[in-house]
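Appendix B: complex inputs.
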Amino acid sequence: MSSKRQGYGGVVVAAPVTVPYQRFSKETAHWWIARALRKLTRSAGIKPADLDGFSVSSFTLFPDTAVGLTQHLGLTPRWLDHIPFGGASGVAALRRAARAVQAGDANLVACVSGDTNHVDSFRRMLSSFSRFAQDASYPYGSGGPNACFALLTDYYMRHFGAKREDFGAICVSQRENALRNPHAIMKKPLSLQQYMDARAISDPIALFDCVMPVAGAEAFLVMREEDARAANLPYAQIRSTIERHNAFAEDPIQMRGGWEMDIDELYGMAGMTTDQIDVVETYDDYPVIVMMQLEDLGFCAKGEAPEFVRSHDLTIDGDFPHNTSGGQLSAGQAGAAGGFIGMVEAIRQVTGSAGPTQVKDAQTALVSGFGMINFDRGVCSGAAIISGSEAS
Amino acid sequence: MTNPLVPPPKKNPQKRSRVPTRPSHMRSRAALGLAAAAAEGRFMLQVCDECKTVQYPPRDACRSCLSVELVWKDVSPKGRLIADTTVRTSTNVYFRERTPWRVGTVQLDIGPSVICHVHGDAAVDDQVRLIIRLDKSGQGVLFALPDKATPNMEDDPHMREMTCDPKFRRVLITDARNENAPALAKSFADAEASIIFIGESESWRPYPHREALRKIPKVEILPLDVTDTGSVLELAGEIGGKTDILVNNARFVRPGGIIDRTDVNFSRDEMDVNFFGMMRLAQAFGPAMRGRGADGQNSAAAWVNILSVYAWSNMPEYGAFSASNAAALSLSQCLRAELWQGGVRVMNVFTGPTEDEWHQPLPPPKVQPAALAKSVIGGLKDGLEDVFVGDVAKDLIDRWRAGPKILEREMIESGGQ
Amino acid sequence: MSKTAPNPADLLTGLAQSLASGAIRTIDLTHTLDPDFPVIILPPEFGQCARFRMEEICAYDHRGPGWKWNNFTCGEHTGTHFDAPMHWVSGRDLPNNSVDTIPVDKFVGPVCVIDCSDGAAKDEDFELTPEIIIAWEKEHGRIPEDSWVLMRTDWSKRRGEAYLNMREDGPHSPGPTPDAMRLLVEERGIRGFGTETVGTDAGQGVHYTPPYPAHYILHGAGRYGLQCLNNLDQLPPTGAMLVSAPLKIKQGTGSPLRVMALVANGGASS
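Resulting structure:
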């Protein structure tokens, strides 16, 4: 089936904002989302009432949804979305909002994600994360995503000969990136030796393979290009996006994600190849899934990611700049905002506003999302390619 | 191979007994089918009635054809362990207290992959055999065993958490006078129970097998009459804190139904022993057992009721006795709900007519004491909740499941034979 | 002895003074109602005598903060108990044959104690025969009409299995022969007969003609039984006063009761 999808011409993404993360917060998701929204409107020079589209991603809003937030925050949008895709929510929010703007259903969409992190909220979220998780994975040691990704990592290592050092290379380079990001939770350098020596969490996963759950929020605006230009906002073009759920359900264990099904369309729609990508922001709750994305997004063949990371420099100044803000592994995982961190960083990169983490001459970025360990594997995958306004 | 269990040292009296904690018990309604399978030691998964696709995790509609006709069926438990991990940090207190805890992914020969507990002797890439066991929260969980038995495999610490193996546990069997008492005691001795207390009522009244009981190793005969609240409380005061497995073996049975019995005296005795006996025992022994559900290797583990299968459907020839057992069955469900908090299992062993004086005129097959004892031990080792002993009991429960009303008619016509 | 009948009121005053001074002692002939006290055992297809059982209603706790009380259950023939004539088929049609209709003056009266303890120690099937009764009378005088006769065997000192003394062929314990009962009931006109064993009859009493002669003959003649008595070794052969009032149970065939004897200090009178 050949693609008949329309491009996103005329629709842009702008105003990347981050509410600096905190390890724990006594505040609520509402509070964090409000702060992101306020920062977003201020940085774009607009009033909240100017927003006629609102997209929310959050795990800790219960019992509210985006609906409750409209009243809580005093918004009157004509287009409202709530995206429960976890790590895939950033890409999904972008592509949905872009279509709404493109169709004229909304002019100005705020895409916001944010979560709080109470001392016990991680445990509470895990025990009732999904029905299948509640029934079929949480009762088995209650290791949460650590244990699920440990199984995937174990399988990946056995089949493709990946070594812990290879995963370590990803973590160490991201830490190096994070040291240039003033908002990153992790502020100390990490050596490969420290990575190797870290406390075991769920074999073969050790401490530095795991993200730190934090409170925080991320946001961006989706709008018409002419409006962005009129407002004098730096913006990025949306070159292509993909999204897929529950791909390869027959695989006995996850060794690839839905990207593999849609990769040709991703690059085809953008009219690009992998070597035209300047910055890659993958979803990185565990390094094994980074390896799968490198493969499934076409940077190397299946099983060759270990060799790829051995032969590339993944830091900001390296030959393959990757997760330039430090990613979730070093900046922290703020719940659903973990699905936005790469998108927001990519917008900064291609609009030249990344400051200390800026990759030199970055024009085009690939952002990948992955979310929801519903049972034994991540169900949602998505990716987007965006470019700075000078590109193409 | 698994390290063999060693008898635990005597408990340090200054050490606080660990408060029982439990794995998560939250389940969807569909997933409760695992508990139902585990209760009887069966390996069952949902199978689509239309396209025959095997489903996992349990769900409400077929992942292949969207039919909602999903039926729990016995399926092949064979598979291959394709990945494993050892959980060292857990958000759940129960597991946190027991880490490292091994779990794995098994690809079943019949299709789905599952996440499961993994026996220490099963290696990745090995063929494994899955079983469903009840965990300490009373929910059914999958457990991967090595395909072939390994030495001491039942002593695997994770496995022991999910079974009630009598090995090195202290047992109380009520009613020494019951004709099955010697067979039960002997089976517990053979299963390496560390002490076998046997409750004896009315020591002023002799019974034939007393000497035989006394000669069984580890047996200690103590006074206990389940119809006497004071006696039950007194024994609980003495050994309640070290009763790991309680076998409620007292039964009062007389033939007869309602009209020809003329009076309620035997029925009252039947209720007093079969129903109130359980209640008195539970009120006296239950609190300590519930509190000791996590008391180390020898924690309180199980409560066993020996019940008549006619608890499910009345056998008019033993009509009042059947009714008392129906009451006891119902009460056992309440007890299960109450002992759940301590992770103590309630196992009901349902038997058809037993080989004893009260069933003497009934034709065979009848359940021999040794067969009953074997089922009790087997059920404990497998951590079951419902055990049906003998052909009559198995046949009856099959019929009951097929249609209780039809069975009621059959019981009238055939007298349960 | 006395020339003129004493004033009854003076008699009671004198009794009260004697009780207070200890000149007359009260002996408890009762076993404690204990759940584990043996009761008579019939073949199991027959209904059985209920054991004594007690359930606490409350004990100064959440079930009743300021008090304690119990419910108890038992049979009419549990523990130390009284048999009324209607207990036996031979007494079924007699007037006043239930515990509630027996005249209350029958509950206080003189008592003779025939000591068979030596014989019972040697022979657990020891029989009380007319010869033994005659010999006893030679020593202690003729058994007065309307008095209680108790057969002392020291059986009450037995514990556990030794009390019922059950064997394959049934219980073995001492008791009266039919002739002994006829002598006591028909010729001496006794009010009742009591034993320390679980029944008024011998353990093997079923094998006499009639079976269970004590029950059959006593109750057939409207007389009473007492069993599971205690402390008979503290009674004199004659001269004591027995107090044995059963509960007033409507149409009751018997009742557990407190049995006491008033005994003059210094032993028997005659």
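The two ends of chain C are 11 Å apart (CA to CA).
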